[in-house]
Design goal:
Two copies of one chain form a homodimer. The first copy, chain A, folds into three domains: about 1-115 and about 245-315, 3-Layer(bba) Sandwich (FAD/NAD(P)-binding domain); about 130-240, FAD/NAD(P)-binding domain (3-Layer(bba) Sandwich); about 330-445, FAD/NAD(P)-binding domain. In chain A, about 25% of the residues lie in helices and about 25% in strands. Chain A has twelve helices and 25 strands. Chain A has a five-stranded parallel beta sheet. In chain A, strands 9-16-10-11-12 form a five-stranded parallel beta sheet.
């Protein structure tokens, strides 16, 4: 059997490896458009922060290992340009300009997502860069070194923008965030996003939300000027971090159904509207376990898990994935920011009747040294009593705690039941009533 | 209505406060045998570790606040000695020798537990102490200061013993642990307890498991000698930490049913075998959510939660507690040790067919600086596929992660479903596949 995989990062290589492990006789072909496979894209901001580290440290497994040890036909610099679903083959061009064509019995589209380039004059100037794949990471890191970057502007204020602001500040670069729409992290409860704002301010990061960017100009020196409404920002480097979009164009052109966020629509088995074609990773959608509806939330764990599931399904097992809860965590300087499930706005849009409880608790027991404050916003449904989501911000205790709420969302737990959970307590790690229980107790009162 | 509470710590004061809040007209009387109420007993080792801190820092709310602000009749130095269930009154003696008697409409027994004093010659010598209540904590802290303790022996190797060994080492006291039975933390998977052993060794703590203690003698100087089989240990102070036992004697004598571990048997509403009498906290048992059977696992969260539930039930609400999962966490020097649910032995004893997966993973993403190793042992049931328990040991990421598994136990999740959880990922906080998912994936294979 010929199993062709388009895309050689998390989902693609997870699928290829597992398929070959499941069925060593299978002909597994991976077509990757860049020169890089199987790397930790999420690690790029932390790597860029440290000039002594090689960006290639982020490669989890070298292409040679896949080729020589695992027997996978792994072809880099292969740009797929089209799928002939009737003839069951994919075609494209290599970096060297050669045409290629591969036929498949089963196909996996794992083309990922790419950074959105806003439609602004000047986005193609040297020094204006995006960060999604490893090559883009190299370009930024090299640029910082070669141009001795002293000032940077990041357009966008999502978590990649925030992680990059930390990385750049850690390299001594004066960093300013700007975005067109108002509000820092508008998906977050205001009490919590205020903590993030304070942390960024404390670390000297400039913030200009609500200042639409009009163009990027070159200055008379060798610098750049980001021209915004009512504001000019001067810098040596601009990072565009306004969001990502799925690489689903040739899939759509081939007549494969697209769904949420123009991602490729897949069922629980990761099958697309064509039963010979699967999709996984950042290019594919998923079922949200809270709403039961399709959502596009491209994250690494889902990509890896979906890659495995595709391999199993291609090999004749029948594996269904339950879905995603939208669990995410990131670090902003000394703050941990975590979320799972829905915020109140998303919950209302999904037809729930959301009630939120916002609480602040100590991160350690009464009287224990080193206490900091943990801020939580828990959302429940007035009608059913169900837990719908949780957000947490604090210097400690947010990143790993969020998992308990994520599991509760998978179990479709009511707030009342979650509040009964026997959670861990010891003075160095939290108060007797875990902060999540304090939030749940409060929310339960509001739900009654 | 007269609501009498015996015992003024976590369960008792939680109940008294909430009852008075629920029904300000209620006559709430608390009878506490010591002079201390409402303190964080779990914080004692950390307080003792710091000579600059006052032990009274651990008092969460002063007696005066309960009396004056909350209108609770709080009587310290009142030893209850008996309950007349027919006449509905309790009787006892004060520290000053006065007899007292109070009648009740509803009674809460929240007498807690006490440290077991082993039946050994010499356990009553000066310098031989236990640690459970605040007065005992003061005695130890004062003794260390007054006698300038240089060497200590702790009899027992449970988590109180381990926390105290850290506290004493932090005060520059040479510390040795000894116990009669073999094995450090025998309830823990051997691969995990080996990590704890290595951490204690690295911090210079002596360990002698499997050396039955025969007696404690005074030496010709002012020191003590702990005489064990095949071993004499010389020191200035001995701490007995061989376990705790519920203070249930006068309850048993009054004909109230005792259950697991001689704790007072209660139903989901915390009611004892006498419908006018409730019990909560370390003196009462609970339903274990994994086995569905009664268990006695005295921990602080349950005490607080049960106190609230009693208050609500006494006030006419009908609150049922689901039960406990046996979730616990403690710190041993730089290690976090966490558990929830059953180990393989407990699972087999409860009628399950346990299968264990032991895995070691990185604590952070591939290539992220500061990586340490996290060790996990996950237990599932071969017959039902249910998740039964999890243990974790590592320098970071164990204490809060365990809560996700605890919630899964409350939800009676199968390992297969838990393995599908959408857990949080960011490079500073863990690998893409959360360590618990790696364990669940491994366990799932073994369960198939």
């Amino acid at each position: 059997m010929d199993f062709v995989v388009i895309g050689g990062d998390a989902a693609g290589m997870s699928a290829a490896s597992r398929a070959k492990r499941n069925r060593p006789d299978m002909n597994v072909i991976v077509l990757e458009k860049t020169m890089d496979v199987s790397y930790s894209a999420c690690g790029m901001p932390y790597n860029i922060a440290d000039p002594a580290r090689d960006l290639n440290d982020l490669v989890v497994r070298q292409a040679e290992v896949f080729r020589e040890k695992q027997g996978i036909t792994l072809l880099t610099a292969h740009h797929v340009e089209g799928i002939d679903r009737k003839g069951r083959n994919v075609r494209g061009t290599t970096d060297a300009g050669a045409y290629f064509e591969f036929s498949y019995d089963k196909l996996l589209i794992a083309t990922g997502a790419r950074a959105v380039k806003p439609d602004l004059p000047g986005v193609d100037r040297p020094g204006v860069m995006v960060l999604k794949n490893l090559e883009e990471g190299r370009r930024i890191k090299d640029y910082i070194r070669d141009r001795k970057v002293k000032k940077a502007v990041i357009i966008g204020m999502g978590y990649i923008a925030l992680e990059m602001s930390e990385a750049l500040v850690n390299r001594g670069i004066e960093t300013t965030l700007v975005k067109s729409r108002p509000g820092l992290l508008p998906w977050m409860a205001q009490e919590l996003s205020a903590e993030v704002k304070a942390e960024l301010e404390a670390n000297g990061v400039g913030m200009y939300p609500g200042n639409p960017v009009k163009r990027i100009e070159e200055t008379s020196g060798s610098g750049l000027k980001v021209v915004c409404e009512g504001l000019d920002l001067f810098c040596d480097m601009v990072i565009l971090a306004v969001g990502v979009t799925p690489n689903s164009e040739f899939s759509g052109e081939a007549g494969i159904d697209l769904g949420a966020g123009k991602a490729i629509s897949v069922d629980k088995r990761l099958m697309t509207s064509d039963p010979h074609i699967y999709a996984a990773g950042d290019c594919a959608d998923a079922i949200h376990v809270v709403t039961g509806k399709k959502a596009w939330i491209p994250l690494a764990l889902r990509a890896n898990r979906a890659g495995w599931a595709v391999a199993d399904n291609v090999c004749g097992k029948n594996v269904e994935l339950e879905g995603i809860a939208g669990t995410a965590v990131f670090k902003v300087f000394d703050l941990e920011v975590a979320k799972t499930g829905l915020n109140a706005g998303e919950a209302a849009a999904a037809g729930f009747e959301p009630v939120s409880a916002v609480v602040s608790t100590r991160s350690r027991a009464h009287g224990h040294p080193g206490n900091t404050t943990l801020h939580l916003c828990m959302v429940g449904d007035k009608k059913s009593g169900r837990l719908l989501g949780l957000q947490m911000v604090g210097k400690e205790g947010a990143a790993h705690r969020i998992n308990a709420a994520a599991v509760a969302l998978h179990a479709k737990m009511r707030v009342e039941k979650f509040a009964q959970s026997d959670l861990a307590y010891a003075p160095p790690f939290g108060p007797v009533w875990d902060p999540m229980l304090t939030a749940a107790n409060q929310l339960q009162k509001d739900l009654e």
